[in-house]
């Protein structure tokens, strides 16, 4: 097996684990759909990015808290990610205001 094939196999394996954690059964794009709804609530493009990141993490939590067993990071890692994105967004908004 070539290095290219090995790398492609690694990508596929990681994608499968993450998609399991983030997306609804039958819709591999559901996390993006959910995040897009949340992002649509904002006008500013930077706010939309932060809302999208938070929306993707919330979509993951919805899957895991509704019965899926995580194949990648823990549920608590997602809570930490939500907190991190929120603090960064808060900081960015403060800096933008000053």
Structural features:
76% helix, 0% strand, 98 residues, mainly alpha
Write down the Rg: 16 Å
The biggest beta sheet reads:
none
Helix run count? 4
Strand content: under 5%
Return the domain count: 1
Mean pLDDT over all positions: 95
Task: Give a verbal description of the structure.
The mean pLDDT is 95. The termini are far apart. The chain has helices spanning 3-22, 30-39, 45-65, 75-97. Helix 2 packs across helix 3 (45-65) and helix 3 (45-65) packs antiparallel against helix 4 (75-97). It has one domain (3-97). The chain has four helices and no strands. The protein is mainly α. The longest helix has 23 residues, at 75-97.
Itemize the secondary structure elements and their pairings.
Layout: H1 3-22, H2 30-39, H3 45-65, H4 75-97
Helix pairs in contact: 2-3, 3-4
Write a brief structural summary:
With 98 residues, the protein is mostly helical. It has 4 helices and no strands.
């Amino acid at each position: 097996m070539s290095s290219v094939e090995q790398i492609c196999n690694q990508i596929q394996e990681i994608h499968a684990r993450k998609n399991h954690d983030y997306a609804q059964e039958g819709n591999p794009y559901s996390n993006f759909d959910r995040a897009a709804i949340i992002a649509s609530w904002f006008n500013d493009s930077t706010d939309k990015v932060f809302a999208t990141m938070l929306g993707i993490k919330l979509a993951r939590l919805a899957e895991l808290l509704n019965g899926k067993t995580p194949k990648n990071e823990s549920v608590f890692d997602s809570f930490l990610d939500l907190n991190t994105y929120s603090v960064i967004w808060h900081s960015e908004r403060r800096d933008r205001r000053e």
